[in-house]
Write a structure and sequence with these properties.
This protein has about 325 residues and is an alpha+beta fold. Helix content is about 35%, strand content about 15%. The protein has twelve helices and 13 strands. β8 and β9 form a beta hairpin.
Length: about 325
């Protein structure tokens, strides 16, 4: 597995404790195990891959919920994985950011064709980077070409030294500007957390409020998602929660639960599978976006060939991943 694919896997899972929120679609159910039994088998299969603890929740078309767990929440104590535990949303919070941007477009407060320079003059420049050529749509879809250079941990020592470092958006963008673009805007696809750092700043410019406050006001409070919270620079998680583990190499597994997310403005959200499913069901049912904006969100492009190793057949919309399933 290449370093880039490992980076995307780390962004997707983040830790060796996995929580899965699954929205079931309507239609005839195939013969075989009941949904609850199948979910239990699936969580056990994920645990068998080496993931320390797994919690998964499925909501059926009629609204009935099934929850299954496997493994342990703590490798030291062996306590079970909580069925209602909190976890860091990590990059799934990008869908929250994208939803707010599309709401602002629907209100006429910005356009997806607006350039970064129109909102953040001079912030994206140098080494071939040019904010006057990059649009908000390209930031949302990871087609901007902006190179991703968020700080990360490659060794246990780096984790212990850097886990409480606080980075402001301008610092993270400056890191990216030290690199040439991966490709000209709109001429490729490469996952860019930096693009969503910029989107958070654009939301604040357009509304006068931080992106996390707009997410709270526009999405979480109206939907009653009281288990989804922005933790800011707090390194802890609400209880109950499982411990998070990261593998730095053979025999080098570290508990990385205690840390401040690098992009704390956008990635400090914690949630539960109940709330994650509630958000996605509301979004895809058209409760958060007008028809045109939801259709725009679901218009996808292929991910890069390298990332296909992680997301076979994967495509990316405006804050949404599309993947074919069996």
């Amino acid at each position: 597995m290449t370093s880039t694919v490992r980076k995307h896997l780390a962004m997707a899972l983040g830790v060796a404790t996995l929580f899965a929120a699954v929205v079931a679609t309507a239609g005839a159910q195939p013969a075989g195990p009941s949904p609850a039994e199948q979910l239990r088998q699936d969580t056990e299969a994920i645990h068998a891959l080496g993931v320390s603890g797994v919690q998964a929740r499925v909501i059926a078309p009629d609204g009935r919920q099934s929850v299954a767990t496997s493994g342990t929440a703590d490798l030291n104590t062996g306590r079970p994985v909580p069925s209602d535990g909190y976890f860091r949303m990590a990059s799934t919070s990008k869908t929250l950011v994208a939803t707010v941007v599309l709401q602002l477009e629907a209100e006429g407060r910005l356009s997806l064709a607006d350039t970064v320079d129109q909102w953040l003059p001079g912030m994206v420049q140098g080494n071939g980077n040019d904010g006057s050529r990059i649009t908000i749509r390209q930031l949302l879809q990871h087609t901007s070409g902006i190179h991703d250079d968020l700080p990360g941990y490659t060794t246990p020592e780096e984790y212990y030294q850097q886990r409480h470092d606080v980075y402001h958006p301008e610092q993270l963008v400056t890191r990216a500007m030290a690199h040439a673009p991966d490709f000209p805007p709109g001429e490729g696809w490469e996952y860019s957390n930096t693009g969503y750092v910029l989107l958070g700043v654009i939301i604040q410019k357009a509304t006068g409020q931080p992106a996390h406050q707009e997410i709270e006001d526009r999405i979480l409070r109206p939907l009653g998602l009281d288990q989804t919270r922005w933790m800011g620079t707090s390194p802890t998680l609400p209880r109950p929660h499982a411990q998070a583990y990261q593998l730095f190499g053979p025999g080098s597994r570290v508990d990385v639960t205690d840390q401040i997310p690098v992009d704390y403005e956008n990635l400090s959200f914690v949630t539960t599978t109940r709330d994650e499913n509630g958000f996605l069901r509301a979004l895809l049912a058209g409760r958060l976006l007008p028809t045109r904006q939801l259709a725009e969100m679901k218009q996808t492009v292929p991910v890069s060939a390298e990332v296909q190793q992680l997301w076979p057949g994967g495509r990316y919309g405006l804050g949404l991943v599309e993947r074919p399933l069996s």
